[in-house]
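Q&A log
Question type: sequence-to-structure
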Amino acid sequence: KMGWKRISRAGGFALKALLLLSLVDFFGMQCIGEQIADEDPVPLSELVSAQASKCKHQSCKRSIILGFANKGYSKFAFNWVLSLRHAEVENFLLVALDEEAHLHFTRHHVTSYYNASMGTTDAKSQHHGSKTFRNIMEIRLRYVVELLEQDFDVWLTDVDSVFNTDPFVFLDADSAAELAYDTPFLPKGKDSPLMVMAGFFYMRRCSKFPENCALLKETIKYIDDHPEKHDQFAFNAVLSRKEAEGYKYKLMDPLLFCNGALYFSERAPQMLGMKSAVVQNNHITGVLSKRHRFREHLLWYLDPPSYYQNETAKYLLFDNVQDPLLGIVHEMASLKSAMLMGRMLNRIVILPLFCLYNKVDGVYSGSSDWCTVEEFIELDPQVFPVREHSFLLNPQTPREVADASKKQKMKINVKADKYDHEDEGDLIFTSKHDDGASEEEIRRWFGKGSRHEEERVLSLESLLGRVQGFGSEEEREKFEEDWARGVREREEIRRHINHTISQLSRPFTCLIAWGRKFDGEMTPEEMGRLMEKMMTKIKPDESLYLAVDGLKSAHLEAFRVIWPDVTAFELFPWMNQGFRRHQQTLLIHQGVCRAAQTVVVDDKSQVSMHLCDEWRRGRKDKDSACVHLNDDDDGGSNMLDVLSAMRDEL
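Response status: OK
Response body:
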């Protein structure tokens, strides 16, 4: 079993060494000159030969680990370099994709190569889906081909990866290439029966294995001919064709060379007690989410000591265990209450674990039933200062802060609660309000002049429904604006939201029927009754989005009998299984319905009412209200007859 305690033990010794390296690299360097760009560049083959010779093993004296980065991705590049140095791997080269990046890397004593004729990118671009990112894919394959043809073996890697140990000891000396598994969460096209990483592989020189250069050259041509296709698809499409023609390669152990889904979401190596040689931070996009993910697993080495050892900083910690289970709806509401308290009291919020959907003893020390916030949410620490949950386990964190999670938690009661203690004390505080404590109460209990003012960490039980918000209208509006831009769905979820909205005619109506059992439990009679009720509120010519769970294509066709312009979210293979998938779906519904002109609600479940409230909060007209379907609504038609006529399709 592997949880946070083992992650802390495994990462603690490395973290201290890497923090020391980061201090040397980023605070102790002297500039080596302002005229670097004007000097004659060292030929690529000469530079690679010098770097490759640093390999510790005789068998890899012609092997080079190759990474690429522009200035916008320089922090991830430095993190990559530090991990390699800690693993005592020196035969690597960082290729700069713009002149500014080359100057930046070289001044910090990182061996860098830059050649504008090989292709350049925008220095500031960071976005995974940008044209710059797609250009990087082709540029790096051209470099790999050139080096393979110059009799080098090349290990291509993304710089948002971390090396934990020397990877060369795991290679098979007889294989032409060693490729890395990607996860089945990604779609597999008909041309890609096996999905491998396009940005992480080891290939041997083309003088011995000419088929490697043929594979990469065809991939480059495929990218040129199909600019709309991602490099992952292009590489796998060509690989599939080449494999059919007899191309042979070896697959790396997916637990030793782990992709982001297996390592961060599923935690497969950790649960088996294994240490991955290399960890890829893929299957998530966005710089903020990638960095937070690394921090949670003690793999981000660039934070200065002040990040952990700020003597004036005070913190707020809250519990996120759910009972009864309501998933991301409650998690987001609790997080919002914590952010409110953090801003009121000028405290940094230490994030809890998320996805605590099952009560499991020892969740921190050996359970897979948890996740961290970036699984669903992208947080901007410039808007809301936070610390990752593993901050409590980091050896750099002061003991008085780290031990706060072990203390008895304080509790905020609301007026409607049944509680044992009516008087305020050290641990229990009771609000005079039913909808959460007021700003005045929060400040009186925990702020200036209170008995808890000087405590480094306020540790509280669940904050769900425990905080009203700011007292003044101006501060409330400012907080809501910051919440909207600083706490958002993760980038992949936003992408699906935007794609779904683009398929809808505007304006459109959103039907929320989360409580309906479309996943095999809904009978034709129940579905017919629902559609009859809908006809009393939603006209047949309206564009309609169905915010429901478990909807199948046959259900959608039944709705199209009455509402031809109807759309529902299609589940994608990248999504997790089980209850986490439901939560991702819920966030997509929330984002799509936020853009609707009208929201119609079929049931009064907490999830449906939450989606309604989210829509209302985003409306300029504060008097906007959701339309509710009533049990006595009757459209006057027998939808069961319609469904019976569609028996074959259903």
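Response note: The longest strand covers residues 196-203.
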